[in-house]
Amino acid sequence: MAVKEKSEDGVISGYLSSVEHVLEDISEVKALESGVHHETLQYLGLVDCVAKYRGQLCVIDWKTSEKPKPFLKNTYDNPLQVAAYIGAINHDTNYDFQVRCGLIVVAYKNGSPAHPHFMDPDLCSQYWNKWLLRLEEYMDRN
What we know:
The protein is α+β, with helices and mostly antiparallel strands. It has one domain (3-141). The protein contains 3 helices and 5 strands. It has a 5-stranded mixed beta sheet, with helices on both faces. The longest helix has 21 residues, at 3-23. The protein is globular and about 45 Å long. One of its GO terms (molecular function) is single-stranded DNA exodeoxyribonuclease activity. One of its GO terms (biological process) is DNA repair. This is Mitochondrial genome maintenance exonuclease 1 isoform X4.
């Protein structure tokens, strides 16, 4: 095996070890790497995963980081992205389900336990409103 392949295997192994405890709480996967389109608001996206996390259907966004991100605020604009995906799924006729929750999972190359950041419906709604403002700013500039 080439040195590069061993190195890549080690990185993958680290990420898998990192998310292992989160995967135990995920079930009923409904979509993986799936395109979404909000026709009314005219934006597209690619959702990593839609599945149940601890019994709640969520848009799940997998992230990697060199630095620990133990709090949702450490993920910067990722919650806006999740809210945008939820909005798109809920308005896309290709999906026969509605999503109200989000989950951002930050995985670490060194195998440290991933930080799962659950977004309940109220939090998703707050970020949806922030997303709409951001989208409006973008539309006004372009």
